[in-house]
Amino acid sequence: MMKQLVGVSLVFCGVSAIFIVGMEMIDLPPSYAAVAGRVFHGLEAPFYEEGESAVVSSEVPPIVAPPAYDSLGISVHTLLASGRPPVIKKGELDLSGKQLVSLEGLREIDGIEYVEKIFLRKNNLQSLPVDVFSGLYRLRYLDLSHNKLKELPVGIFSDLTAIITLNLSDNEVELLSAGLFSELGRMTFLDISRNKLRVIEMKAFTGLDSLRSLYLKDNSLVELPMRVFEELKNLEWLKLDNKFTKLSGGVFVGLSRLGTLELGAKTYNRRELNSLWEKLGLVRRK
User: Fold this and answer.
1) What's the CA gap between 286 and 283, in Å, rounded?
2) Quick check: 37 and 30 in contact, CB under 8 A?
3) pLDDT tens digit sequence for 136-156
4) Domain spans of the chain, in order of start
5) Whole-angstrom Cα distance, residue 94 to residue 117?
């Protein structure tokens, strides 16, 4: 009969470990936490035949240091160094809920240039370098929702020419700059709901020739520039529920294919929109 050595174990104590031999407890430095984890799970604890005496060696086993964390938190580079690097499966890369504060190392992931979908939702991202997605010409779907992004630099999406869906909802973005999406001519769905948008510049939606759905609800918008949607010729669904104090009819110029508008507590269908356009002094659509 085999049984595990009793009285020898390692116990985690936050950043340190305690080595227990009989009734004696010896503090070990933080770097021993890696070894502690393995022994604690019985992977390195010695086994003895019943009746045999155990001799504990005074030699310290080699320590494999855990992956270093960035001073500001976890990055993709941290995951790559962990021994269990992110893997792209069937064209998809899922890094959701990893507590990431940085995407440093993203382009070091094996096969990243062929990825088609990236999920980055529910992390702690606050800012992104302008070249973070450079070279991802095959990317069709990008989910950055539920982070803490405060700004989107012009040029950050420049290489995402194949993108179809972009989800930026539930962040803290305050400004959409002119030309931000100018290279995304194939995109059909854009969600920027539940941010802190205060300003949308003219030409912010330039280049979105294929956009069908645009969600801007639950932001901090109180007004919009005239003709801000003018280039969205194929837009069919617009969610615009905000706390507007002033909204001119000229805001909606160019939305000739719009079929659904959510504004305030009301959702307008296509027929109701025709009446609304007339009231706002816009040309009635055929």
Assistant:
1) 9
2) no
3) 999 999 999 999 999 999 999
4) 2-49, 74-225
5) 8
Beta pairing, strands 189-191 & 165-167: parallel
Q: Give the CATH number of domain 74-225.
A: 3.80.10.10
The helix/strand/coil state of 262 is: strand
Please answer whether residues 253 and 229 qualify as being in contact, where contact means their C-beta atoms are separated by less than 8 angstroms.
yes
Residue 259 φ/ψ region, left for φ over 0, alpha for ψ in the -120 to 50 degree band, beta for the rest: alpha
pLDDT digits (tens, 9 = 90+) for 188-242: 999 999 999 999 999 999 999 999 999 999 999 999 999 999 999 999 999 999 9
Cross-strand pairs, 118 = 93, 142
Rounded to two decimals, what is the model's pTM? 0.74
Question: Tokens in use for 131?
Answer: 């070249």
Q: Is there a contact between 181 and 157 (Cβ–Cβ < 8 Å)?
A: yes
Structure tokens at 149: 């992004």
Cα–Cα dist 148/123, whole Å: 8
